[in-house]
Amino acid sequence: MQGSGQKGTVASLFTFWNGQEDLDWSVSEWEEIDIELVPSKEENPFFTNIIYENRAMDGEYYRDFDPSNDWHEYEIVWKPNYIAWSVNGVEVRRETNTESVRDQDKWSLLYMNFWTPTWDDWGGGRDDSTMPWYTKYDYIEAYDYDEASGNFNLRFRDDFDTLDRNIWRVSDNWGFPDNSSQFMENHTYV
User: Could you give the CA distance from residue 42 to residue 114 in angstroms, rounded to a whole number?
Assistant: First the structure.
């Protein structure tokens, strides 16, 4: 993944369950595991996060790493008893048997996005005159965890030579609160 390096933007890769399988879900059931590149946080622009029961957050900035706009390999390992994040093959954070880890008990979709926060802490310093900005993903590998064996089995690898609609759903014209971006299909390139 290569972030834009532009202040006021966030590049992300994350797992997300928001009730996809349950029409009667409550926002208190929200589950998410994040990798976020936040250039406006100049001292610590790499953020890892777990969102769990009642939208509680268990976030942490990784110090002494500036992703800038260089290519780096990011990884999330999610097992029933821990969640770990790695950068370029080196584990940088592990949460073990915390409430935030135990609450991650639903299947999730894998998302990628690039957006512009409206609050100053993450959105400050944005200079729209430097547009266009891009976040790039060279490839994605997704694995299923086999609890019986303790191993991960490759579900898919996508090198983004084409847009594989059997894997990805491209967002079309929506946003969310605290975000000044609109996610649009014509802003997605392979």
Answer: 18
- Beta-strand ranges (E) seen in the chain are 10-17, 31-37, 46-52, 56-57, 60-62, 74-79, 82-87, 90-96, 109-115, 140-146, 151-158
pLDDT digits 0-9 by tens, 106-132: 889 999 999 999 999 999 999 999 999
Report the share of the chain in percent with pLDDT over 70: 98
What's the predicted TM-score (pTM) here?
A: 0.93
Each domain of the chain, given as residue ranges in start order, spans: 10-123+132-187
Whether the CB-CB separation of 70 and 1 falls below 8 Å is answered with: no
- How far apart (Å, rounded) are the C-alpha atoms in residues 114 and 31? 20
Token pair recorded at residue 95: 């949460």
Angstrom distance (rounded) from CA 101 to CA 50: 8
- pLDDT score recorded for residue 147: 93
pLDDT mean over 143-155: 96
Q: Which CATH class is domain 10-123+132-187?
A: mainly beta
Report how far residue 77's alpha carbon sits from residue 143's, in angstroms, rounded to the nearest whole number. Answer: 9
